[in-house]
Amino acid sequence: MSPRRNERRRRPDWRVAASAAILGFTIFARALHGLPLQDPPKPATAEPAAPPGEETTVKICTECHEFDQVVAVRRTPLEWKDMVRTMATKGATGSPDDFALVRQYLTRYCGEVAVNTAPAADISAVLGLSSKDAEAIVAYRAEHGKFANLETLAKVPGLDKSKLDGQVEALRFD
Length: 174
Description:
Layout (H helix, E strand, L loop, with lengths): L2 H8 L3 H19 L21 H8 L5 H4 L6 H13 L6 H15 L2 E2 L5 H8 L3 H14 L5 H4 L8 H4 L5 E2 L2
Parallel strand pairs: 1-2
Helix pairs in contact: 3-6, 5-6, 7-8
């Protein structure tokens, strides 16, 4: 081998030297600012969990119907109770616990409630409010009269209006 060729192999390529300099500077800068040498791993984004009872409801109801047909009309808790009982007597398959879960799901996510006449249990079941909040609505209604709309309902002391905002279609003010 000629001396010149051998000399060329020993010299680092300028790209390697530049990369080493950048890496060194990055390590120094991160240490100077108290940053870790590696970025922490990003958490895996999990899909939001389905509401309780949704899987059972879809399974049982779609034996005979399209799911959109089942939830097309909002019903009161009593109407959903009657509907689920009727479907069970017509041959829908499931255990008593399954049917209770279906009724609970349909009431909560496809229910409607007449806030001016409904008992606290129905208000809680349809809107997903605590029993304390539902009782507060009933007590306020008894003291101040009927609610005209969402704005008057939101005047109930201690009630978090944001819990109602996404559920306007579940509220009846008749």
